[in-house]
Amino acid sequence: MILEQLQNPDDIKKLSGDELKELAQEIREFLIEKISVTGGHLASNLGVVELTIALFLSFQLPEDKIIWDVGHQAYTHKILSGRREMFDDLRQYGGISGFPKRKESPYDAFDTGHSSTSISAGLGMAQGRDILGQNHYVVSVIGDGALTGGMAYEALNNAARMNRNFIIVLNDNNMSISENVGGMSRYLNGIRTGEGYNGLKRIVNSSLEKLPVVGKPLIDKITRTKNGIKQLVIPGMLFENMGITYLGPVNGHDIRALQKVFREAKKLDHAVLVHVLTKKGKGYAPAEKNPARFHGVSPFDVKTGKLKEEKKYPDYTDIFAKKICQLAEKDPRIVAVTAAMPDGTGLKAFSRRFPGRFFDVGIAEEHAVTSAAGMAAAGLRPVVAVYSSFLQRGYDQVVHDVCIQDLPVLFCIDRAGLVGSDGETHQGIFDYSYLTSVPNMSVMAPKNLWELQDMLDFAVTYDRPLAIRYPRGQAYRGLREFRAPVEYGKGEMLFEEEDYALLAVGSMVSTAEHVREKWKEAGFSCSLANGRFVKPIDTELLDRLAERHGKLVTLEENVLQGGYGLAVTAYVHEHYPEIKVLNIALPDAYVEHGNVSLLRECLGIDSDSVIRRMRQFFLEEDTDGNMRRDG
């Protein structure tokens, strides 16, 4: 195999054209084989194999810098930069990340994970290069889906002022995760399919190539001319009119054509955008047919494309998806908003049943939040379905446009808590902290699937900002017998005894249930309460717990700083200073990728770890080494 013969990244430059084509096929086979075992981002990586090969051929890495937008399409980049043998542990705890990581390799120029950032980062790196008197190339690779994000336009606006080379590669596959939406998608589609430009270019090139001696130089001159054929045939030319030279579109699966256009791009002394057309999922029929399903995929059977482990029970996303449609049937004011995630957030069914009340704004969380605020101000009941780590991108809009005006926008926050293999950029471990700090915002977290349904019933009738936060994965089916009506700001007592009390919210209620069982087996009396509301905290419930318990444990799947536990502790210490409070939460750190169960154990929030923490905190050794109860 050619792939196995590559000992260092520069070896690729020794291959012939035919060998490069064979290499591309081998890389696709390698990716399909490995990702079918570990899971990961498949369709996006299959689409950029030739593009990545061309970048390694055209630039001198790692001296030259490549910044991958989002970064989930950087698997071929990792293979070619010496990490092929590490792919058995891709996205596994202690293994290589599914995204670029500077600490992992000098070939990874910038850490990425969220969309629409690469032009800004690349521009900053190019400006640093110029100030420091360096001479390397900087290349930002951004997808057409990422161009729906406003940050990309802020960066383009400033890139137009560059007076030294800066290359932007637009990887255009007409997809983000789901199919692209909006004006930019239509604009690029016009370029993509514009027969006037492409047809005329083919005719001119074909005619000039027949001219001896002068034909090829004339073609090269026309290609380099800023006000060339494309200016005459494609009205507007958005990028050119901004001051950024546009080259393309070019076939993103033709390595020679890509090398040629990169040679042209390197000659320019200002910003240049290279428009590359690729096919998401290329080379694997199931991924080509359904690229959204194979965007981020669990382990699957290569022959059939079917997941190796199908879902046995609904997850929280499924519960939300079904319930919000039921509520929308009853209330025509309910509308749904998503930022390019109709599948991931469960709104696909809503979009089919209520197309006029469904809004996919593309990768534009800031716009999603403020447009929802506008809808609420107009009298609608908007539901913004978003991943926890992506809502961070709309934080200012939550503060400024929703909560200052006290508008009834419901945020349904999926993938909250530890999400696992996508790592630091995707762990939803900050939302309690950043939402509870905002006046007028209330935050809820369900203990199981039935409580999520009840919270949604409550939420659509609540006339102020509200967030419901739930984790990734199978919805908890325990504690069904406890289903007290949802009242604003009220938790619920599940088991009431004395001495020790566990007070948990959201996903940690099930953990607390197991902790209680183990603590009672050890001979201790223990109560369990479900906080339900992270903000406001239920002070009446805390007063009730204080009457019969001298030791309190809070449990949450969020960082400690700014979280639920510290709010509870502040109240208890002010009113009941004699009560000892132990906070179980995540550390003040970014959490690496890995299996969620393993991460919970490593971070000390699984039931066995909580038991150990309780023993250390509440129990002390006497002088003879025997364990005694505190107090």
From TrEMBL:
The entry assigns this protein to a family as follows: Belongs to the transketolase family. DXPS subfamily.
Q: Superkingdom, according to UniProt?
A: Bacteria
Q: Does the keyword Hydrolase apply?
A: no
Q: How is the cofactor bound?
A: Binds 1 thiamine pyrophosphate per subunit.
Keyword annotations for this protein? Answer: Isoprene biosynthesis, Magnesium, Metal-binding, Thiamine biosynthesis, Thiamine pyrophosphate, Transferase
Binding locations of Mg(2+): 144, 173
Could you give the subunit structure recorded for this chain?
Answer: Homodimer.
Functional note: Catalyzes the acyloin condensation reaction between C atoms 2 and 3 of pyruvate and glyceraldehyde 3-phosphate to yield 1-deoxy-D-xylulose-5-phosphate (DXP).
Pathway-wise, it operates in: Metabolic intermediate biosynthesis; 1-deoxy-D-xylulose 5-phosphate biosynthesis; 1-deoxy-D-xylulose 5-phosphate from D-glyceraldehyde 3-phosphate and pyruvate: step 1/1
Would you tell me the protein name for this molecule? 1-deoxy-D-xylulose-5-phosphate synthase
**One cellular component term from this protein's GO annotations in UniProt:** cytosol
Record domain Transketolase-like pyrimidine-binding: where: 314-478
Question: What's the cofactor?
Answer: thiamine diphosphate; Mg(2+)
Please list the GO terms describing molecular function.
1-deoxy-D-xylulose-5-phosphate synthase activity; magnesium ion binding; thiamine pyrophosphate binding
What is an annotated GO biological process for this record, any one?
Answer: terpenoid biosynthetic process
